[in-house]
Amino acid sequence: MSGREVCRRIALPVLAGFWAFCGSVLGAAGFSAADPGIKAMGLGGAFTARANDPSAGFFNPGGLALLKKGKLTVGLAGLSLNESQYQGQAPGIGQGTTGAQEKGWTLPAHAFTAIPLGEKMKLGVGIYTPFAFKTEWADPGSFAGRFLTTSGALETYDVNANLGLKITPNFGFGAGVIYRSSRFAMGRRVSGVNPANGQTVDVGSLDLETDYDTGIGWDAGFLHKIGERFAWGVSYRSPIDVDYAGAGRLTQISTGNAQLDQLNRATLPYDLDLPLFTSISFPETATLGIGFAPTEKTWIEADVTQTGWSRFEGLNVSFPFNSTFSRTVQGPWEDALSYRVGAQIEVGGGIQFRVGYGFEESPQPDASLAPLLPDAERNILSAGFGRDWLDIAFQLIAPQTRATATNGDGLNGSYKGNSYQVGISITK
């Protein structure tokens, strides 16, 4: 048995195990996750006009039909080491304060397969994380935004099935169904007033979590190759709405005043499951990609994507039986554009090197910039390496420092941070 075959037999089950146990990642603009494809990751995400591996089911289902044979790809979409700091500014509740998020890492994973159904049709099935975020503010007892958010997490998992049809030898069309399962969690402090001095104090920590709830959507795309050197494609993914049900739990925090703590214990619903409802309107995306080959062994592509974030009008967390805990956070947002360019060169022996750059607008207006998910315009630098069965990629995601003096909750200030992503996939 060859060394390459040994690597394949070991790596595929290892990656599959990671996929089963790993969680979400803080990713692209808004609460988009890292693109679930390692070739695309090395190209800065510019892959709509290329779409030449099973991840075409995500990037452009029209590319499925033009694949020469069936394949399976299993991989980890990225490793994220996040740093984020807050600097409070006047006017408002954050003036003169600072905050920092806890550092962490996650390994979101993906799997794609393309199965021939006759000479002109292929079935593509993908499982991946399209949207995700995770925030946790250190020292929540002193963080100025603690009554808004101390932590938050969104997990989504898509099962996406597409049929790709080869209309002509150089034109493929694909369309399919997306089944989304998603869960949301958030924590914040609850305030009270000390009647002895009129000061605001922390009286509880409210942690909420929803069940995994679901939504249905669809996607479509085409890929057109013109001669041997030029290709272009369009891909669309529909909006999906998910309605969540769950519960919150309020845990008492001592104020240091025994009489006040006793009064709070008698009047607030501590240590009970408090039913809640919320919903998220996930955005639609539309991408145009144009690529060409200056030489037989090089490829250059540019993509532009519009994401319909204006559907997201805020996250309304409703407690129907405890309305004082109901809140609307993170909204409304605006539509945003992203621009990506990538280049690949083959140096012989099937070895490929990739580089890419991306720029993403932020969908958050200043009034909606908040600690649950502080977002900003960002630059992305990427590099990748590939062979016929292995792909590796790295990305540096550098958001611009973002400041607001018009936050709707009065938490003005600036946010800054960086994120690093790496990925690996095996194709068989």
Any descriptors?
23 strands; single chain; 428 residues; mainly beta; 9% helix; 14-stranded antiparallel barrel
How do you describe this structure in short?
The protein has four helices and 23 strands.
Give your account of this protein's structure:
- This protein is mainly beta and 428 residues long.
- Helices cover 9% and strands 51% of the residues.
- The protein has 4 helices and 23 strands.
- It has a 14-stranded antiparallel barrel with strand order 1-4-5-7-8-10-11-14-15-18-19-20-21-23. It has a two-stranded antiparallel ribbon with strand order 16-17.
Unreliable segments of 5+ consecutive residues: 1-28
In which range does the helix fraction lie? under 10%
Number of helices: 4
Estimate what percentage of residues fall within beta strands.
over 45%
Q: If you compute it from the alpha carbons, what radius of gyration comes out, rounded to the nearest whole angstrom?
A: 24 Å
Q: In sequence order, what are the helices and strands, one letter per element?
A: HHHEEEEEEEEEEEEHEEEEEEEEEEE
Distance between the termini: 16 Å
Q: Which structural class is indicated by helix and strand composition?
A: mainly beta
Taking the sheet with the most strands, its summary is: 14 strands, antiparallel, barrel
* Structural shape: elongated
In spatial order, strands of the major sheet run: 1-4-5-7-8-10-11-14-15-18-19-20-21-23
| Topology, number of strands | 23
> Average pLDDT, to the nearest integer?
90
